[in-house]
Design a protein that fits this description.
With 334 residues, the protein is mainly beta. The chain folds into two domains: 125 residues, Jelly Rolls, CATH 2.60.120.10; 161 residues, Jelly Rolls. Helix content is 4%, strand content 42%. It contains one helix and 26 strands. The strands form six sheets. It has a seven-stranded antiparallel β-sheet with strand order 1-20-17-22-15-12-11, with no helix packed on it. Strands 3-8-5-6-25-26 form a six-stranded antiparallel β-sheet, with no helix packed on it. β11 and β12 form a beta hairpin. The longest helix has 14 residues. The radius of gyration is 20 Å and the shape is globular. The termini are far apart. Belongs to the pirin family. This is Pirin family protein. It comes from Croceitalea vernalis. Pfam families: Pirin, Pirin_C.
């Protein structure tokens, strides 16, 4: 068997991706106790570049938040966001009137389509204990034919996400299928909604000093394995250190042995869309002219405006996990 590794690369911020994925970022923030108003103690904000704080100080970042960490309202067009919150919570609000609080393993799948605004804030709900946050956000492209579909908001609650428990590994199947475990349906206009595109998003945890095998794909896809926590892994005699990505030949099975510490991985896979990509900040289209059009439309329409009282909107502190959909439907998960 030949070596399945095409290349390895260090994990920056954000992570390098392959078509059909546009962007992937890993947030691990060891937030302190809350101040009663879902933010950190104001004394801890001294010396931070509030509004643009991406430097890890004391183990955490404020991002674009001023009193509560997170990302106040901002627009998107032309792609989808997949937000996986393994630890902590995310408060979502958007220009469709949809809202939610999700975390502890939940996933939000949002199709921006022709245009949407949303905010993603990280409320510090615990006042008597620290508030760790572990979150992935993945941008999945839309083909030209679907870039102007209606925006769509969907929750994949952790109780419903397939988790495969093997002898030495746990595989959370967020998109695609792993062996006989089939993920929940994604948003309806997603590139992942067509099984022929073989899109997979798996969060994999493998025990120390054991071996794990990734099955080969059935079609021509790109496949990237992100090794974000652990000691080291070995593909045969090829050693890969943590905080590296591995581009794999998906036409082969890929077996690796985990070293002295448990290994944590994210796998992204899919058939390339293979269309021109024009990107400018939160807009992803096919041409520069379409990017200019997106900016012009956003200035005029604000993609429907902002129906919430604050740009960094958060929900009541006592509220549990929930989702309010644009049609008014409410799901309470507690």
């Amino acid at each position: 068997m030949s070596n399945p590794i095409i290349q390895t690369f260090p994990l920056g911020f954000p992570w390098k991706t392959q078509d059909p994925f546009l962007f992937a970022v890993y947030h691990l923030d060891h937030y302190p106790k809350g101040n009663g108003a879902m933010g950190p103690d104001s004394k801890l904000l001294n010396g931070r570049n509030i509004g643009n704080d991406f430097t890890i100080k004391d183990g955490w970042r404020m991002y674009h938040g001023s009193t509560i960490p997170g990302f106040p309202y901002h627009p998107h067009r032309g792609f989808e966001t997949i937000t996986i919150v393994n630890k902590g919570y995310c408060d979502h609000s958007d220009s469709l009137g949809a809202a939610g609080r999700f975390g502890e393993g939940d996933v939000q799948w949002m199709t921006a389509g022709r245009g949407v605004q949303h905010s993603e804030m990280f409320p510090l709900l615990n006042d008597d204990a620290e508030n760790p946050l572990e979150l992935f956000q993945i941008w999945l492209n839309l083909p030209k034919a679907d870039k102007f579909v209606d925006p769509h908001f969907k929750m994949l609650w952790h109780e419903d996400i397939p988790i495969v428990q093997e002898k030495n590994a746990t595989i959370k199947v967020i998109a695609g299928d792993y062996k006989k475990a089939i993920a929940n349906n994604p948003a309806p206009n997603s590139w992942a909604a067509n099984n022929d595109n073989e899109v997979a998003v798996w969060n994999i945890h493998v025990d120390a000093e054991t071996e794990f095998t990734i099955p080969k794909a059935t079609t021509e896809v790109t496949r990237t394995l992100y090794f974000y926590e652990g000691s080291e892994i070995y593909f045969g005699d090829k050693k890969v250190n943590p905080n590296f990505g591995i581009s794999l030949d998906a036409s082969q099975v890929a077996s690796f042995k985990v070293g002295a510490k448990k290994g944590h991985f994210l796998l992204l896979q899919g058939k390339p869309i293979a269309e021109p990509v024009a990107k400018y900040g939160p807009f992803v289209m096919n041409t520069d002219e379409e990017i200019q059009q997106a900016m012009d439309e956003y200035r005029v329409t604000q993609f429907g405006g902002w129906p919430w009282p604050y740009p960094d909107n958060v929900h009541e502190k006592e509220k549990g996990r929930f989702a309010t959909y644009p049609d008014g439907k409410v799901v309470e998960k507690g």
